[in-house]
Amino acid sequence: MNKNTEFAVGIKEMQLRIFYWQRQTGERFARKKVTIMKNLLGRCVCAILLLTVLTGCVSAEYRGESFPATLYINTYQAGQKLPENCVFIGRGVASGEYSGTTESQLLHKLQQLGLAHGADALVVMGCRIVPDGNVADSAREDFISATDAPDQASTEIEFNNIIEDQAAQQSSFIRIMYADFLRYKRNLPSAK
């Protein structure tokens, strides 16, 4: 073999080696990408399930008239000055397990409930912590405000009672928020 053919064969071998090396590296990289994607997908699924569980812990109940859904709802606190052109259309309550539910989650659930039933405004009447299974006055038509409950003092004492043996503590608590729903008179069917 002459030098030119040896050089050509050497270059060909080098190209083949580079090709095989690139192929192996590419396959390794592709496998690594798949593994990374599987891990990322698994984490996303876990996060979505966790969010579903956390948001699924808030329940809500509405009693009153229903109107076509609205796109925006004003939120007021009890005692705050309300617009004069509003009428009462219903009451609602949202509740969730105390340690996994915040007041803002309950408020958001009540806002969604109000939007679905056509409320233009909601008035938060109060938020309470009660022992599980003791939803205050949910069987009656009137929801009591946070300060009206005769059992509130005993609930607070029980809630704040620190027991060394946590297994001996039988009570679990739920957070409850009450609200009244309002609609502007101009949006009532009879006003049109």
Task: Please describe the structure with a list of short key phrases separated by commas or semicolons.
192 residues, alpha+beta, 2 domains, 3 helices, elongated
How would you briefly describe this protein structure?
With 192 residues, this protein is an alpha+beta fold. The chain has helices at residues 3-55, 103-116, 152-160, and strands at residues 59-64, 74-77, 86-97, 121-131, 173-184.
Describe this structure in words.
The chain is of the alpha+beta class and 192 residues long. The protein folds into two domains: 1-55; 57-191, no CATH class. The chain has helices at residues 3-55, 103-116, 152-160; strands at residues 59-64, 74-77, 86-97, 121-131, 173-184. Strands 1-3-5-4-2 form a five-stranded mixed sheet. The protein starts with a helix and ends in an 8-residue tail after the last strand.
Report the principal-axis shape: elongated
Number of domains: 2
The number of helical elements comes to 3
Taken in chain order, the helices and strands follow as HEEEHEHE
Structural class: alpha+beta
Arithmetic mean pLDDT: 75
Work out the strand percent: 15-25%
Question: What does the main sheet amount to?
Answer: 5 strands, mixed
Number of strands: 5
Spans of at least 5 consecutive residues whose pLDDT stays below 50 are 136-150
Largest sheet: spatial strand order: 1-3-5-4-2
How much helix is in the residues? 25-40%
Q: What radius of gyration results from the CA coordinates?
A: 31 Å
Calculate the terminal CA-CA distance, rounded to whole Å.
Answer: 101 Å
